[in-house]
């Protein structure tokens, strides 16, 4: 049995796929060429690549379809607008009176709903409450 040394070349098709992937010749390995940030490029969620392998000596080729699904990672911390609320409260404020509303968001594509909690100190324990789902701050 004879074994022939074939030189097979591979490329990604269409050419625009090279922006997000690279295919070093002769390795058969598709590698990421740059960061896949879904918040910056939501169209990267599913990318279909067509790989063409060809042997120029024997003028034959084969193709393979590769589907890449990019999964979002919770990599952006939530933020609140405004990030600081300063106010005064008269001592006659009725219990349950809404003092402020905290509005926070998460820029991750697959972000889940945020929950709110007060981190109490010695002077605020038992004096304030916050709505876990809505961020409404009330006097107790």
Helix/sheet category? mainly beta
CATH class of the largest domain: Mainly Beta
Shape descriptor reads rod-shaped
Low-confidence stretches: 1-6
The CATH architecture assignment of the largest domain turns out to be Sandwich
Domain Cadherin: 27-80
Keywords: Calcium, Cell adhesion, Membrane, Repeat, Transmembrane, Transmembrane helix
GO cellular component, one term: cell-cell junction
Subcellular location: Membrane
Plain-language structure description:
The chain has 140 residues and is mainly β. The chain has 2 domains: 9-69, no CATH class; 73-140, Immunoglobulin-like, CATH 2.60.40. Helix content is 0%, strand content 31%. The chain has strands at residues 9-13, 21-22, 31-32, 46-55, 60-69, 79-80, 98-101, 104-105, 128-130, 136-139. A 3-stranded antiparallel beta sheet has the order 1-4-5, with no helix packed on it. A 3-stranded antiparallel beta sheet has the order 7-10-9, with no helix packed on it. It has a two-stranded antiparallel sheet with strand order 2-3. The protein is rod-shaped. The N and C termini lie far apart (88 Å).
What does this entry show, briefly?
The protein is rod-shaped.
């Amino acid at each position: 049995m004879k074994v022939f040394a074939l030189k097979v070349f591979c490329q990604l098709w269409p050419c625009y796929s090279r922006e997000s992937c690279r295919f070093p010749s002769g390795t058969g390995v598709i590698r990421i060429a740059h960061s896949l940030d879904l918040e910056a490029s939501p169209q990267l969620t599913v990318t279909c690549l067509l790989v063409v392998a060809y042997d120029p000596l024997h003028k034959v080729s084969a193709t393979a379809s590769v589907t890449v699904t990019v999964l979002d990672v919770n990599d952006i911390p939530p933020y609140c607008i405004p990030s600081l609320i300063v106010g005064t409260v008269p001592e006659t404020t009725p219990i349950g009176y809404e003092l402020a509303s905290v509005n926070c968001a998460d820029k991750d594509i697959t972000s889940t709903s945020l929950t709110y909690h007060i981190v109490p100190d010695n002077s605020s324990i038992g004096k304030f409450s916050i709505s876990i789902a809505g961020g409404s701050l009330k006097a107790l």
